């Protein structure tokens, strides 16, 4: 008993040095989490709150749970994790906010040549986190001094993945950003951060990789030792991330959820050894689990149906994005989260199916 209470006391008094991490829905630091913001029409009750609900999954989860509050609140994982950005004592931090659809401002940059990529790097001298997401006009600039959720991002589904990394991993992360070529709309890289992370300084200046290969894959290890695989491509790669690289790299058929309301959508593709299917419907498990069409969902993720991978990232499957930068972050821990979500997908056209090994129809359950 004495041991137990002294352990408890130690736990309460122990403040970790590198406290800049992802925070979970419980309010505690977590190694990583995924948030799936649900489309507005899946909700019932108060209409103003629909589109602010989300599902939550982290390293301790067996299944998705309901978000603790609304996505615009700082008690939830996303708002809580981003809080240090909006505090007035944040001068010791370095951060890079990037989004091809940045929050509105008077100076509007042309983003169409930049990577189709959205995210946040937030770090102190010990480490920090990388948040990769699909949310337009998000998050607010540090100078806005408050966390908020853009009204324009309420209607559709969105995905966000946050991973806590030790400082050294930001070298590899920033190298990946020289491929994805993000539009940086806010940053601070003062003191020795700029020297420590020369790639990051290049990225902030709008520089990118200048010679092939035009894609790069690195293994990243989180603070607690979990393994992630980051895939990044520059526009000159000139092919679809999923059918042109990822399916082969992961050695598996892929089911890909992406935004379907753009022109030049790529159909499911069974021409390679590994097939790539466009997800058309997503459903959370359980009788009350919300279900929705891909047309209501701006999120970007994929899963290998037989395991062991799932990825959350930047890219849709369309012709334009074959020629833009962007990437995705894959991990085997994510598989049990995403595997159950695929409700329906588009089979390949009969013509290409005839030439393909295996039968995609056999995958329907
Ligand atoms: C979140 O948005 C809802 C609906 O617009 C609003 O009623 C609520 O006050 C917001 N909460 C916060 C913490 O901003
Ligand atoms: C910044 O202020 C918050 C409270 O607003 C406090 O919890 C935190 O410890 C402070 N951080 C630093 C680095 O002083
Ligand atoms: C299928 O994917 C491969 C590799 O990206 C590509 O070369 C081919 O053109 C694609 N086929 C269709 C019909 O999109
Ligand atoms: C780039 O993608 C091609 C497939 O298009 C793949 O074969 C190659 O291994 C990738 N290169 C790197 C450096 O990952
Ligand atoms: C999904 O789309 C189909 C047609 O594409 C439509 O019939 C169906 O009602 C939609 N379902 C939802 C839940 O929006």
UniProtKB/TrEMBL annotation:
Signal peptide stretch: 1-19
Catalytic activity annotation: Endonucleolytic cleavage to nucleoside 3'-phosphates and 3'-phosphooligonucleotide end-products
GO cellular component, one term: lysosome
GO molecular function: deoxyribonuclease II activity
The keyword Protein biosynthesis appears for this protein: no
PANTHER family: DEOXYRIBONUCLEASE II, DEOXYRIBONUCLEASE-2-ALPHA
Family that this chain belongs to: Belongs to the DNase II family.
UniProt-recorded name of the protein: Deoxyribonuclease-2-alpha
Lineage: Eukaryota, Metazoa, Chordata, Craniata, Vertebrata
Gene name for this UniProt entry: DNASE2
């Amino acid at each position: 008993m004495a041991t137990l209470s002294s352990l408890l006391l130690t736990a309460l008094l122990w403040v970790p040095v590198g406290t800049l991490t992802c925070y979970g829905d419980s309010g505690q630091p977590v190694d990583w989490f995924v948030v799936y913001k649900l489309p507005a029409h899946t909700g019932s009750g108060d209409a103003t709150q629909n589109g602010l609900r989300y599902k939550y999954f982290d390293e301790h989860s067996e299944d998705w749970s309901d978000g603790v509050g609304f996505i615009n609140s700082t008690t939830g994982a996303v708002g809580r994790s981003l809080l240090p950005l909006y505090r007035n004592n944040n001068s010791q931090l370095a951060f890079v906010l990037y989004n091809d659809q940045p929050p509105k401002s008077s100076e509007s940059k042309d983003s169409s040549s930049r990577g189709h990529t959205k995210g946040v790097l937030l770090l102190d001298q010990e480490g920090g986190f990388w948040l990769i997401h699909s949310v337009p006009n998000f998050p607010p600039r540090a100078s806005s001094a408050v966390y908020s959720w853009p009204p324009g991002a309420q209607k559709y589904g969105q995905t966000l993945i946050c991973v806590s990394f030790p400082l050294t991993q930001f070298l590899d992360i920033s190298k990946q950003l020289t491929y994805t070529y993000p539009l940086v709309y806010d940053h601070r890289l003062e003191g020795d951060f700029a020297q420590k992370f020369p790639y990051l300084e290049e990225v902030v200046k709008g520089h990118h990789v200048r010679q092939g290969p035009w894609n790069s894959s690195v293994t990243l290890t989180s603070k607690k030792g979990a393994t992630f695989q980051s895939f990044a491509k520059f526009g000159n790669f000139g092919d679809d991330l999923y059918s042109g690289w990822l399916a082969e790299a992961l050695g598996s058929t892929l089911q890909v959820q992406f935004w379907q309301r753009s022109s030049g959508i790529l159909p499911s593709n069974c021409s390679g050894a590994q097939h790539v299917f466009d997800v058309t419907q997503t459903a959370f498990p359980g009788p009350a689990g919300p279900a929705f069409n891909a047309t209501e969902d701006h999120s970007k993720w994929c899963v290998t149906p037989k395991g062991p991978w799932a990825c959350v990232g930047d890219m849709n499957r369309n012709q334009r994005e074959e020629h833009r930068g962007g990437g995705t972050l894959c991990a085997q821990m994510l598989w049990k989260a995403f595997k159950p979500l695929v409700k329906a997908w588009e089979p390949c056209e009969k013509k290409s199916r005839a030439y393909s090994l295996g039968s995609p129809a056999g995958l329907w359950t």
